[in-house]
Design a protein that fits this description.
The protein is of the alpha/beta class. It is 34% helix and 20% strand. It contains four helices and four strands; from the N terminus they run ββαααβαβ. The protein has helices at residues 35-38, 45-52, 57-72, 92-106; strands at 2-9, 20-23, 80-86, 110-115. A four-stranded parallel beta sheet has the order 2-3-1-4, covered by helices on one side. The longest helix is centred in the middle third of the chain and has 16 residues, at 57-72.
């Protein structure tokens, strides 16, 4: 089963088309509020760890992995696209995308990850 995961920032453009879209903006603390993490990305271990240690994130990733598996087991199973979005697309969304990819690969899925907005500058807000 092929799975494409796209991380993105709502403040940059509309969400990509996906079978499942995770909106991480409201329910999960934004590392952007911490000055020491603001200019880093999910590719930095301290940001990745901060996001994954946020209460509820692991449960959401596991539930999303289960949902992808359900899509994959349908009678018309085909590729599944998951979009994970946060405000700027540099912290929460890419960290969740990377963690979800790990879970899905362990379950035997062929996974690609694209970070649409990770390269963009920090959004000043």
């Amino acid at each position: 089963m092929n799975v494409e995961i796209v991380s993105f920032g709502y403040l940059h453009d509309a969400p990509p088309t996906a079978h499942l879209t995770l909106d991480l903006r409201t329910h999960f603390r934004d590392p952007h509020v911490s000055p020491e993490l603001r200019y880093m990305t999910a590719l930095d271990a301290s940001v990745y760890t901060a996001v994954l240690n946020t209460p509820g994130i692991t449960d959401l990733v596991e539930a999303t992995a289960d949902a992808v598996t359900a899509f994959a087991s349908g009678p018309s199973a085909g590729p599944v696209t998951v979009a994970a979005g946060c405000a700027g697309g540099r912290h929460r969304a890419p960290a969740v995308a990377l963690d979800l990819a790990s879970w899905l690969r362990l379950a035997g899925h062929d996974v690609t990850v694209t970070h649409r907005d990770l390269h963009r500058p920090v959004v000043q807000r």
